[in-house]
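ok so i was messing around last nite and threw this chain in just to see what happens. nothing serious, just curious
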Amino acid sequence: MSMSVTFWGLLIPFLGTALGSACVFFMKREMRDGIQRALLGFAAGVMIAASVWSLLIPAMDMSASLGKLAFFPALTGFALGVGFLFLLDRITPHLHAMAENPEGPKSSVNKISRTMMLVFAVTLHNIPEGMAVGVVFASFLSGGQSISSADALALSLGIAIQNFPEGAIISMPLRSEGNGKAKAFVYGALSGAVEPVAAVITILLTSLVLPFLPYLLAFAAGAMVYVVVEELIPEATRDEKTDICTIGFAIGFALMMVLDVALG
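result:
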């Protein structure tokens, strides 16, 4: 049972990217703005709630033996997670900025360059997300009580929802540049393939991971919070259209809270 849950948990984020990339087969240009904002808000709510209940609180519970310093591993890991994503953002383009102008200058060389940069940026952003999923499932498979199957699957679902528009962000510009729908879909889907690979590698290194699990869980939380604040919320609330995002965020946060408390 646990292996079946783990298999689907590792696959769900990739499926989110693939489904987003598949939009190229059904949409003429791009995803409807309201739907994209609602999905981004929902994913943000799920990921913030997951960062608290599924990552930071378990990290502190695992460090209970430290007494009043039980917060230290969580604080350290959280800061490292935020710092890592901050540095990553300095060396790769912002996804929403590239999505707004995916073609750049009109020369074919620049279009190829920007398209490859976009694929690279999304792929690189997906690696720590895959590691986060791997860390959570490594804890679940270890038999610890801090992470339940519901926690792990809910986190995977939240990342998958976030990945949905990312897949479309790649496939749509590729299609608009004259590439075939199949090629645009494959490029978009492959950008998410690194997530299950990173997750599997993390799980295979479980024996090395477990002693540092509180730090790694908090690291994943820091990375998630950074993605929400830096990428999802600004994209979902651009032009001061915040209502749909806010509703989506509230629903996502409430759903994750219920899943964690009721099924955890």
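not much to say yet. Residues 104-113 have pLDDT under 50 and may be disordered.
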